[in-house]
Structure formats: structure tokens, C-alpha cells
Write a structure and sequence with these properties.
This protein is α/β, with parallel strands linked by helices and 203 residues long. It has two domains: 5-16 and 85-197, Rossmann fold; 20-83. Helix content is 45%, strand content 11%. The protein contains eleven helices and five strands. The protein has helices spanning 20-23, 30-39, 43-50, 55-65, 70-78, 91-100, 113-119, 135-138, 145-155, 169-176, 188-197; strands at 5-8, 105-109, 131-134, 162-166, 181-184. It has a five-stranded parallel beta sheet, with helices on both faces. Strand 2, helix 7 (113-119) and strand 3 form a beta-alpha-beta unit. The longest helix is centred in the N-terminal third of the chain and has 11 residues, at 55-65. The protein is elongated.
């Protein structure tokens, strides 16, 4: 059993993510952009893929509901990596420091299976992780306690010696509900202080 470990979320902890990063390139009008990402390709709709629903089911349904937007809906599927413009400031450097210190690293991410398959190969930082649980693959989503219990079993970790890092309060609470300490991510300096205070990093 692994006694001490750090478990990361991916979106908005390791990497920035927002649907607007893609659609601002395709929709010139600011008001129309906001309407599109709050009525058509919305985070809530997108989260169905995170939960395991195939794009092949989701896209035709959305096109039928919003005729005339086929090209933009197709762009969501074909260009999803452009919703992820790059890493959160300082986060990957923290991962590198933890790895260099010999801390076992894992991740639990709400991420669609098909999109993860396209994104993961573009980011060598994930080579430093021993295992990553992807919601769309497992068809389990944070903050369901079942996904954290799966992580404990599959990662082979002692929950009492683990810390989970996520930007969403409910996801933090989900980890805590199964005995994993958790930190709500605000920024890297705050996280670094937490990791030092808990003995995962040396200041």
C-alpha cells in the first residue's frame, strides 16, 4: 500500500479550461458568443460526455435542438483541445517538484473518454503520474463517493496519507467523505504552502 500520495484534478487545476477559448475564435460577436456557450454548447451539456455519454449520441441530438449551428457543434467535437489553452500558472512545476521528491502522483478527472484520448498524448506531464481515473471511461463522476473509492482501491493508496486537489468545493467534499484529505485549489502559491505544511514538499 502507498502510504503518502498526491491526487490532482486536471481541469482548472493543472490545465486551464473554458469552452470560450475555442468559440471566441469562431464567433465574432461577444453577445452571440455568450448566448452560444450558455444555451447551445454549454458546460452542463458537455458534462454528459464527462459522465460517459458518447459524442455520437450527443451531437445529433444537439443539432436537432439548435438547427443552423451544425458547424459550431462539429467544431466542439473536432477541436476540443482548443478549449484547453495551456497549463494553470505554476501547476506543472509543482507536479515536477513532487515527482522529483519521490511523491507518488495520481489524478481523478471529470473528462470525456474520447476527449481524454485526444488530449492525453499531447501532455507529457502525465507520464509522471502512476495512474489516472477518467470519469468518462469509468462512467463515474466526481463528486460521487464511488469514484474516490475506486481510486483508493485501484491506486493502492492509504487514504489517510493522501491529499486530493480540486477547484470545485463539492469535489473536495466528495474526497473528504471517504477519508481523503483535500485542498480546494485557488492558485499555485496557496497549494504550495499547503503541500509544504503537510510535508509533501520542502520549502
Amino acid at each position: 500500500m502507498i502510504r503518502r500520495s498526491v491526487i490532482f484534478d486536471v481541469g482548472r487545476v493543472l490545465f486551464d479550461w473554458d469552452l470560450r477559448h475555442l468559440f471566441v475564435k469562431l464567433i465574432d460577436d461577444k453577445d452571440r458568443l455568450e448566448w452560444f456557450v450558455t444555451h447551445v454548447v454549454t458546460p452542463e451539456w458537455h458534462f454528459q460526455h464527462d459522465a460517459g455519454r458518447p459524442l455520437a449520441d450527443m451531437l445529433p441530438e444537439l443539432k436537432a435542438a439548435f438547427p443552423g449551428h451544425d458547424d459550431l457543434i462539429d467544431a466542439y467535437a473536432a477541436r476540443f483541445n482548443e478549449t484547453i489553452p495551456g497549463p494553470m500558472p505554476g501547476s506543472l512545476e509543482l507536479v515536477e517538484r513532487l515527482d522529483a521528491a519521490g511523491v507518488p502522483l495520481f489524478a481523478i478527472t471529470n473528462f470525456g473518454h474520447e476527449f481524454w484520448e485526444a488530449f492525453r498524448p499531447t501532455q507529457p506531464i502525465f507520464d509522471r503520474f502512476r495512474d489516472i481515473i477518467v470519469s468518462g471511461t469509468e462512467k463515474l463522476m466526481k463528486p460521487d463517493p464511488a469514484i474516490y473509492l475506486l481510486a483508493i482501491e485501484r491506486f493502492g493508496i492509504d487514504p489517510a496519507g493522501a491529499i486530493f486537489i480540486d477547484d470545485v468545493a463539492a469535489n473536495v467534499a466528495g474526497a473528504e467523505s471517504v477519508g481523503i484529505a483535500a485542498h480546494r485549489f485557488i492558485d499555485t502559491p496557496t497549494l504550495e504552502r499547503e503541500l509544504v505544511a503537510r510535508g509533501y514538499l520542502v520549502d
